[in-house]
């Protein structure tokens, strides 16, 4: 299938751009820390722009010399070119769904009357920008389906603009709401609640700290300047406020958080005419989420006294709480209401199990799933007779099923056709032991007949933070790597939520090193079991996973041939000073705290790059419109790595334009994936592909 040389492919020495250094030094609790590349934090300056251009010239010059780069891109384009659908959602007689014909940069929103009606386009984001980088990020219908509030994002930014559409004519109305981020539209009658920030200073839209989020009510057909301020908190600038209304529009729920973990819940009984919010759950030690209401009671998914989560029924007036679905040994990963039934999605060793309950918490049945994988869906209206769900696994493309509430039967609704043979591949779950004795799961996917000779190109992927669970899921863009004899290894590190809040807490703050230890143990397992070798192993991760890559290759560079840190949080001392970075303090801790500074400083990727470390071939990726993890993290990391690493391996940075925290369209996703695979395989000694 592929030719691998006995020695790793070598290229001429790279001539990196010179990066100016300053004498910037900060004092953290008595520790002096140099920050010579602070100027790269100004990603809109002419000097930074010239630096980016020069770095990209080196990187793309290197990539263009890899003989099979375009071959990979062509195969990626070929395999993703198939129709992809979302599960339908019903509103009155209409069913709404997304579809991508294959190579469209953005999926198109359609609707049709009944399941056999003719689809009509509701919104086609591909028509909204010349390069296809404007995305439809949310679409919220009013309770009666008369209007819809939809949000658009440009060039990958987290900033959104909300518009309103008349669903009788499918024409946009004059409404336009700006400086919106991390919110939906919670409808009440002819208007909706939403959250926004004040307009940032000119030139700092993508980097300045986002503070003082506020909740407003927008009445359809009016200007944003007339919106009613519903909630603000002048004493706490660093909080998120997210509003929702129950399906019957009786309750307005205000969810408050100080970061990514822990919440506080307030409510108004709009039917009773409440003028002020009343606190339902005090924050911020636990996570609470209101699923819906049953009359004058609220259904709440939470982990108060239940690390694996449970569902309770709460009487708002008295605070009286009764468990509907008690905690189990497996994590309750979510709950939804449709057709007057409760659907509970559990995780067992990071794979889905779904159970159906009545609204009083009586178990009725388990939903029969196609296999071990990941399920999403089971959403709907109270009068639904059936619901849809989507099932996927590593070699099982996302397939839509219909579940009938009366017969309790599942039938296939829509299956995709992808240009590969699932029967040629297999996935297995294995477990290994981490440094402290913790048992950690690892999914391995590869072509059948794999030889355990230590010579298989292997991509180890991890995340390990923020309660994020890595469950089995299909990506067509993974197949070309597997076709070349590659192994995809997805590891369920601590810091995620695969085993509930306890698993999460073991990878937070002062215990963050556990995450890196888990990843290192995964690499050691793969090598010891002869799936691969240090010469054929790549470590890849994005965002918090980019931090993972940076920290791990500082600590154990000998385990990896290639490192791909994508849009990573690399400066752990200053992350909270940009956009919404302050929201991550709940998971990481902060350099403002002496004890947390000590823990963070010990692993911060930028601050632990040292001379003499045999770094693997490294390609950092970021984008100019990433306002979640600002590109300064990757810029400063690349400059530091290029300064200190003197070995033969490349230390490159690939900087995408008109893109954000993830690829802003299909074309950019294909191109960046091809470059990552080409860089990875080339540095593993792969001379040619099949």
Q: Mean pLDDT, rounded to whole units?
A: 95
CATH class of one domain: Alpha Beta
* Shape, principal axes of CA atoms: globular
Low-confidence stretches: 1-10
List the helices and strands and how they pair.
Layout (H helix, E strand, L loop, with lengths): L2 E2 L20 E4 L2 E4 L11 H19 L4 H11 L4 E2 L3 E3 L2 E7 L7 E6 L6 E4 L10 E8 L5 E8 L5 E7 L4 E10 L5 E3 L2 E6 L17 E6 L8 E4 L8 E6 L5 E7 L5 E7 L8 E4 L6 E7 L2 E6 L7 E6 L4 E6 L5 E8 L2 E8 L2 E7 L5 E4 L7 E4 L8 E8 L2 E9 L5 E5 L10 E9 L5 E9 L10 E4 L17 H5 L3 E5 L8 H6 L7 H16 L8 E6 L1 H12 L6 E5 L18 H4 L5 H8 L15 E7 L8 H13 L6 E6 L9 H18 L2 E3 L2
Parallel strand pairs: 35-36, 35-37, 37-38, 38-39, 39-40
Antiparallel strand pairs: 1-41, 2-3, 4-6, 5-6, 6-7, 7-8, 9-10, 10-11, 11-12, 13-14, 14-15, 15-16, 17-18, 18-19, 19-20, 21-22, 22-23, 23-24, 25-26, 26-27, 27-28, 29-30, 30-31, 31-32, 33-34, 34-36
Characterization of the model:
- With 690 residues, this protein is of the alpha+beta class.
- Among the domains are: 25-78 and 420-684, 3-Layer(aba) Sandwich (Rossmann fold), CATH 3.40.50.1820; 328-417.
- The chain has ten helices and 41 strands.
- The strands form ten sheets. Strands 33-34-36-35-37-38-39-40 form an eight-stranded mixed beta sheet, sandwiched between helices. Strands 4, 5, 6, 7 and 8 form a five-stranded antiparallel beta sheet that branches. The chain has a four-stranded antiparallel beta sheet with strand order 9-10-11-12, with no helix packed on it.
- Helix 2 (69-79) packs across helix 10.
- It starts with a strand and ends with a strand.
């Amino acid at each position: 299938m592929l030719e691998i040389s006995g020695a790793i492919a070598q290229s001429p020495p790279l001539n990196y751009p010179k990066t100016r250094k300053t004498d910037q030094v900060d004092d953290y609790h008595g520790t002096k820390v140099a920050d010579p590349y602070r100027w790269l934090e100004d990603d809109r300056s002419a000097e930074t722009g010239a630096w980016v251009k020069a770095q990209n010239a080196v990187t793309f010059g290197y990539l263009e010399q890899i003989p099979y780069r375009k071959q990979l891109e062509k195969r990626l384009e070929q395999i993703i070119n198939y129709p992809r659908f979302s599960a339908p959602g019903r509103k009155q007689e209409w069913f709404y769904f997304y579809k991508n014909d294959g190579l469209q940069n953005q999926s198109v929103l359609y609707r049709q009357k009944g399941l056999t009606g003719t689809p009509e386009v509701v919104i086609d984001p591909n028509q909204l920008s010349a390069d296809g980088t404007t995305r439809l990020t949310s679409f919220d219908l009013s309770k009666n389906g008369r209007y819809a509030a939809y949000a658009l994002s440009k060039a990958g930014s987290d900033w959104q603009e909300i518009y309103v559409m008349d669903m009788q004519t499918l024409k946009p109305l004059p409404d336009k709401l700006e400086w919106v981020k991390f919110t939906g539209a919670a409808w009440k009658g002819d208007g909706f609640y939403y959250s926004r920030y004040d307009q940032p200073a000119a030139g700092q839209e993508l980097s300045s700290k986002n503070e003082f989020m506020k909740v407003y009510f927008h009445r359809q057909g009016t200007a944003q300047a007339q919106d009613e301020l519903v909630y603000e908190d002048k004493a706490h600038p660093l909080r998120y406020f997210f509003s929702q209304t129950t399906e019957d529009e009786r309750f307005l729920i205000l969810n408050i958080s100080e970061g990514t973990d822990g919440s506080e819940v307030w409510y108004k009984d709009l039917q009773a005419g409440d003028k002020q919010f009343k606190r339902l759950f005090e924050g911020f030690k636990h996570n609470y989420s209101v699923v819906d209401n049953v009359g004058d009671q609220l259904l709440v998914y939470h982990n108060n006294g239940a690390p694996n989560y449970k569902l309770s029924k709460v009487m708002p007036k008295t605070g009286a709480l009764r468990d509907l679905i008690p905690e189990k040994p497996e994590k309750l990963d979510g709950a939804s209401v449709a057709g007057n039934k409760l659907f509970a999605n559990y995780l067992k060793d990071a794979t889905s199990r779904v159970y159906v309950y009545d609204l009083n918490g009586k178990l009725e049945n388990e939903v029969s799933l196609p296999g071990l994988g990941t399920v999403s869906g089971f959403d709907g209206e109270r009068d639904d007779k059936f619901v849809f769900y989507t099932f996927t696994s590593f070699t099982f493309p996302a397939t839509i099923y219909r579940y009938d509430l009366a017969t309790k039967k599942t039938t296939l609704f829509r299956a995709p056709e992808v240009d590969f043979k699932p029967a040629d591949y297999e996935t297995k779950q294995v477990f290994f032991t981490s440094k402290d004795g913790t048992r950690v799961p690892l999914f391995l996917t590869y072509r059948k007949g794999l030889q355990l000779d230590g010579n298989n190109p292997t991509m180890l992927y991890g995340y390990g933070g923020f309660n994020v669970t890595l469950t089995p899921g299909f990506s067509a863009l993974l197949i070309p790597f597997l076709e070349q004899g590659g192994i995809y290894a997805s590891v369920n590190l601590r810091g995620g939520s695969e085993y509930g809040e306890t698993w999460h807490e073991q990878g937070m703050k002062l215990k963050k090193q556990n995450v890196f230890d888990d990843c290192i143990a995964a690499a050691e397992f793969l090598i010891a079991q002869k799936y691969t070798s240090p010469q054929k192993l790549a470590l890849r991760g994005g965002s918090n996973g980019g931090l993972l890559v940076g920290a791990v290759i500082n600590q154990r560079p000998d385990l990896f041939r290639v490192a791909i840190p994508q849009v990573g949080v690399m400066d752990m001392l200053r992350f909270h000073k940009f956009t919404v970075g302050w929201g991550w303090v709940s998971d990481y801790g902060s350099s403002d705290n002496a004890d947390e500074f000590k823990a963070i400083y010990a692993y911060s990727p930028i601050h632990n790059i040292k001379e003499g470390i045999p770094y693997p071939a490294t390609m950092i990726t970021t984008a100019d419109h990433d306002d979640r993890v600002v590109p300064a993290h990757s810029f400063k990391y690349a400059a530091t790595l290029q300064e200190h690493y003197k070995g033969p391996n490349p230390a490159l940075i690939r900087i995408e334009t008109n893109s954000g925290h993830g690829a802003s369209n299909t074309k950019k996703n294909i191109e960046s994936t091809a470059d990552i695979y080409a860089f990875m395989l080339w540095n593993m000694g792969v001379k040619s592909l099949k």
